[in-house]
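Sharing in case it's useful to others searching the archive later.

Someone asked me privately for the predicted structure of tRNA (cytosine(38)-C(5))-methyltransferase, so I'm posting the question and my answer publicly. Question first, with the sequence:
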Amino acid sequence: MKELPKTSMKRRTQNIRVLELYSGIGGMHYALKSTNIPFEVVCAIDINPLANTVYNHNLGNRAKHIDITKVNASELDGYHCDLWTMSPSCQPYTRIGKQQDVQDPRSHAFLHLLEELPKVESPPKYILIENVQGFENSITAQKCREVLKGMNYNFIEGNLTPKQSNIPNSRCRWYGLARKGSLVNWNFEEIIATSFKNSYKGEGINTLESFLETQASFESYFLPEKLMFRYGHQLDIVKPTSTNCCCFTRGYGQLVQGSGSVLQTSDHESIADQFEKDRMSLRLRYFTAREIARIMGFPDSFQWKEIEISEKTMYRLLGNSINVNVVSRLLSHLLYPSTGGQEEESIIKPSFY
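And my answer, the predicted structure tokens:
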């Protein structure tokens, strides 16, 4: 396997205290682990009880079932955290949704946080926010910019895809990084230039084969004949040798178009020609939840079957999660932007190795 680009940081002697908002299954926590920066998650908050169950099984009992719209500034202050990470609901802003923005009830939790943040007596020094591509054009995003800049945060933002981290996946997402106080020469373009050099050129990107399971039983993952003949032309079909696959959404395995790629397991050279001749001979299957988790940067030590979380449920939970590899690089720049981390180097690779 080819090495991924290097990212590095100075070593801290004191733990960064972290508040994970919209913590999900722990993607932000795993991203922090990948940076090698000492940290302590003081509390993780999510309204999804199944996500909390997975988080707590893998990362300790930090995740709490709390409605963020009920949290006030005093409670946020009580955590005394240096860093807030958050991945608010993306449904109000997705291109395949209704794009109701601030009118969508699912945006209210984040809007509430933006109302409470200026009231916090000791606000965090660092904030990292993740959302779907297109969020940047929303009323919510404009409100976010106004609040953070009004509080003297240096705020930068931009879109990134895992392909820019050598991961063969086109899950493009918007990221916002906020740091208290002024900072010279800190911008998103610099971050891309130093830690996301490949862009969309396809240079050095790993193939999907690097992320596939070899010992699993795949019979239940093969696409049924009825689906193949009714919706087959809507499928995004990839091979193990491919250097890209589509974004896996929470509807993977249920929806056909726009929910994620399917894998060709036959050895036919031309997918298009064979599809017209005998599409069933391509032996198309869904990616397993483990394979998707690997593509998204979760280690193989990450568990869910042991706590009786189904594959279907994991598709939904992974679809709402983040790419660990991308966020780990961003966190390194957020916490050590001025030095670029020249004093110590670490390589971020697919973490199941």
